[in-house]
Automatic annotation (TrEMBL), chains A, B:
InterPro entries registered for this protein in UniProt: Aldolase_TIM, HMGL, PYR_CT
Name of the protein described by the UniProt record: Hydroxymethylglutaryl-CoA lyase
Regions that span the bilayer: none
Annotated organism of origin: Brevibacillus choshinensis
Pfam families recorded: HMGL-like
GO molecular function annotations of the record: lyase activity
Entry keyword set: Lyase, Metal-binding
Domain Pyruvate carboxyltransferase intervals: 3-270
Keyword Endoplasmic reticulum carried by entry: no
Keyword Transmembrane helix: no
Annotated signal sequence range: none
Family that this chain belongs to: Belongs to the HMG-CoA lyase family.
Length: 298, 298
């Protein structure tokens, strides 16, 4: 039985790291992730570099990597200007994003949710016309840093709109890492009522330690695609110092132990984790990486 | 619906910390844990101080704490000599321990499993005669650092023997933190065939990030008692630098979110976590503690 992992470390991870990471290191990281067997990698973002200076080198990164034919590389695209850059980059997949809560969407995108739909629709139309695959992210599905609880109907609505635009997969995000397995089950069960599980992905953050427990709950509901970040790279913009995305190493370890086939070689994945930890010069949150490096040292 | 938490930080946590912790700080920690609403606290160990010098002050700790009448304090007792110390301490509960794997038992207790049973039986007999409650730990249920996989029948056998001795509850331990939810479900389902779930507890380590996912799986099987350590205190003697017990803060956060009643006040618990982190002078693994301290700072 297969589970797909979407590696978001080079984007969601690195955009939340304060330490500067060189373009060369990003390129090496992506190539190492692919060498470990990851088939889907979110490589960077075409968001305005004014907002995310960490990923201003998106073009250089995508030029530098060794493109593998059985890997789908992707990047975040916020608007038509971003789409211009994506078009020139040679990518075959892009990702759209918006929030399920009004305040987070407004603060993040500077538009209301209603104003965001047509912008995304235009980007999707253009990407689809170019033969690209379009992924969608819904943020704050399990809680908003400003509003607290988010009605499930908001997430259903956004999911529905994204699918209507031609998005092939919607990633449901616990942006601030507040979800617990009970909530994941409840939310996912409601969303899979209108949407096939193959169209959904779980995007969990481990800010409160529940990330893998939430993955296990989503597996129970039938979700088979999960986003994760090498080393648990990144953090939480709403709680600087706290943990961000679930770690790819920890996710692969758990899935291996549960007899899910991810196609990822854990040993090689740990090399990628050790590499980027060394580059950043700080201990990353991945527990499997910690245990591995401790065992190597012992 | 209630879940019981057995706080093992002052014992399982501190016995694995290299940094010296003063007796006064241990006493303060235990009193803070009780103030947060924990009703079961493993306060120390009567293992020979030659082996665990970190807990050589068991008597002083137990003399110093403010005994609360609705809290059960406990300590580890390995043999009749330990039992003498426990008797003098005023405790109403002790805990026995052994492994489900021969090699770990031999290295840890210096006896075969068969040789261990009569020793524990004698301690249990004495404790029960004094009106004490006796808890039992089974180590390496989900994997052994020396033997790898451990047959479930070993754990069933040890569980059965402990219950025969009059133990009221058997805590099934993932000593090296290798378990995944699938294995937890499989092992627990087999063990609950002979043993009522009320007699069992889950003791998970988070060495590979799966700790809370394993708790959620054990909850599904009907387990309602879990061991955890404030701050995620402690570590893994087999992988120095790796994480140890699951964190009490993270456990309480997840259980709260799943509408389980633990009786614990998370705010006060975080005070206890912040206190012992400050004492140790190192960042503890608890993610909820990290997120809390980051939010306080922001």
């Amino acid at each position: 039985m297969k589970v797909q992992i979407v590696e978001v470390g080079p984007r969601d991870g690195l955009q939340n790291e304060k330490e500067h990471v060189s373009t060369a290191a990003k390129i090496q990281l992506i190539d190492k992730l692919v060498a470990a067997g990851l088939h889907r990698v979110e490589a960077s973002s075409f968001v305005n570099p004014k907002w995310i200076p960490q990923l201003a080198d998106a073009e250089e990164v995508l030029k530098g990597i060794t493109w593998s034919s059985d890997v789908t590389y992707s990047a975040l695209v916020p608007n038509v200007r971003g789409m211009e850059r994506a078009k020139a980059s040679g990518l075959t997949e892009i990702a759209l994003f918006m929030s399920a809560s009004e305040t987070h969407n407004k603060k993040n995108i500077n538009k209301t949710m209603e104003e965001t739909f047509p912008v995304l629709r235009e980007v999707a139309r253009e990407a689809l016309a170019l033969g690209m695959r379009v992924r969608g992210y819904v943020s704050t599905v399990f809680g908003c840093p400003y509003e607290g609880a988010v009605p499930i109907d908001n997430s259903r609505r956004v999911t529905h709109e994204l699918l209507e635009m031609g998005v092939f997969e919607v990633s449901l995000g616990d942006t601030i890492g507040v979800a617990t397995p009970k909530q994941v089950r409840e939310v996912m069960e409601k969303i899979v009522k209108d949407t096939a599980t193959e169209r959904l992905a779980g995007h969990f953050h481990d800010t409160r330690g529940t990330g893998l427990a939430n993955v296990a709950a989503a597996l129970d509901v039938g979700i088979r695609t999960f986003d994760s970040s090498i080393g648990g790279l990144g953090g939480c913009p709403y709680a600087p110092g706290a943990a961000g995305n679930i770690s790819t190493e920890d996710l692969v370890y758990m899935l291996n132990g549960m007899d899910w086939d991810t196609g990822v070689n854990l040993e090689r994945l740990l090399e990628a984790g050790a590499f980027i930890q060394e580059e950043l010069g700080r201990e990353l949150p991945s527990k499997v990486l910690k245990a591995h490096l401790a065992a190597v040292k012992a």
